[in-house]
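Quick start: read one record
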Amino acid sequence: MNDIDRRLQDTGRAFLAAAWARLQEERVVPPPAFHPYLEVGRDYFGNSVMPLAEYRALEEAIAASHPRFDAGRPLHEREFPGGLVFSFLETFIARLTRAREDFSPDGPAAEQALRDLIQAVHADTYEVACCRVVSHMTTADGKPVEFTNIRVEPVISQAADHDGELQRIISTVIPGAASAYGRDRPHGFAPPESVIIAQDSGAKPFDLAKPLSQRIERFMLLVRLLKPSTSESMAEIQGATHTVREFKPTVLRFRGAGPGFGSPTQLAARVITLGSDDVSRVDGLGRLLTAAEQPRTDMAFTSFGMALQKFVLSFHAYGWSEQIVDLATAFEAALSGKEKTDVTLRLKIRASTLLSTAVDPTEQIFNDVGVIYGLRSTLVHGGAMTEKALLKEVRKISTVPDGLPDGTAIAHAVERLRDLVRRSLLARICLAVDDTPLWPLNADTGVDAAMVDDLRRKTWREAWRDTLTSIDALASADPPLA
């Protein structure tokens, strides 16, 4: 052991002893085994331990151990020892509590915490992970599936063991991940669930979380486009994968906070099942979407970008009415074009022309869009509707089976619109990727003329399906079986 590490060990042990004594005086430690994770500012004040001579000695030892702590460095490049000191203390307390050890600055918990501290001090790069819990997703064989820069781990357990298995998966990636919740874990139970994991390394850990979360969001978009589903993002844990860290685990909660037991998502659940054969499909659709979008740096937003955003937001909605408004906005942004008159008629014609199949014929799509848009217009234009009238309209939709309970019938109506939006987005992507695209994302000229010409209509319908066939994803052009 070199002199730097020996100094870190000596000052670290002394700090643990002094800090434990101070926190014991304040009745902070030992914490209960049920909640071993303390957090400065929530469970104790930083000023409880910062005046200690042992704190200052450890802080100085860390500052002398690596150039990134130098006071002369520019502020945006400099790191401060305090974050590691508090993480070191809290990691030790959690490990001691979970192992049910008596306090000792020389025991196994202290030894491991000291090793972790030394490793963190000497590190030039850090690994960060985002672990997103999603509903209604599993894998074909119950085992993890590796996608490009993404891993999907299904939560396979009995209901009584579900939370424990979920925490085990996340904590394997981000140690001490449960500390992110405080004493208020995100509630939700929408099996089958999976954890979507993205990891990366860099010199600035806090700069990695947003790109990793966006990577997961992009993956979820691609999967939702390929497979009809009700898979919602329930919560996401972000943090460094080392135990002593400045980037401690944090929890990201989404709009809608995942499906509740009475939500439309639960009432008409559609599960995504992923396998190794889906890897090439997801990659293929990702390439098609990138080619179709052709980023335009001069644009604040685009119609198609808004369509994608509203499609995603429909998976984070609080109720059926909000889902319909989000999805209707996405539908219009995807298909209606720039003209502001006769929007509903244009949507009915374009959707029924492009999306019709043997099991979902033109007339059926045409009529369903009319019913759904009647509901949408009432919702957004200040109308009113009795429950009886609402259910009467909902039961006109072709995919709403007879005899369903009222809430379930409404949920099926939402899912009908969501699937029409999904297939419309796929059609737009596929029709925009050729060297001479039939329907570029930023143009609308000649679209309606193509819809009324028998030969061109057939060409367009076949073209986007052929593009899906090229990535082995033709099945995505069809509506769900049930």
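Residues 406-431 form the longest helix (26 residues).
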